[in-house]
Design brief:
- α1 runs antiparallel to α3 and α1 packs across α4.
- The protein is built from four helices and two strands; from the N terminus they run ββαααα.
- The protein is mainly α.
- It has a two-stranded antiparallel ribbon.
């Protein structure tokens, strides 16, 4: 959409792109904000498919809590799957600076003045 990115900061839980300005069109802001969680869901589906095709018991979320983590290829893909699902859900919380807050603002800006949204 032609929005310049000032900088990208990579963190252990993901990345943050600082845009030079917020798109004036709410649909553009919505698409930009949804892109991050969409990538997490895509990665999760890809890793889940790889783990499923490997046909082994690949995901036991409680294993992390008990310390009984296996390091097979399928289990690693399963943990990447789980991590990306949790990250996408967390990122879609309707609060700033998460993408969910930006999605909510974009949806509200479709009906309200941008300042009120």
């Amino acid at each position: 959409f032609g929005v310049p990115v000032q900088q990208i900061v990579l963190l252990p839980i993901g990345g943050v792109a600082q845009l030079k300005h917020i798109p004036r069109n709410p649909i553009q802001e919505f698409v930009i904000a949804v892109a991050g969680p969409a990538v997490n869901i895509f990665i999760a589906l890809l890793m889940g498919l790889v783990a499923f095709v490997s046909k082994s018991a690949w995901l036991n979320p409680l294993a992390i809590l008990t310390g009984n983590i296996t390091l097979s290829f399928a289990s690693i893909m399963g943990y990447i799957f789980l991590y990306n699902i949790v990250l996408a859900l967390f990122n879609m919380l309707p609060a700033f600076p998460m993408d969910g807050g930006r999605v909510l603002r974009a949806l509200l800006a479709m009906r309200l003045d941008y300042g009120k949204a």
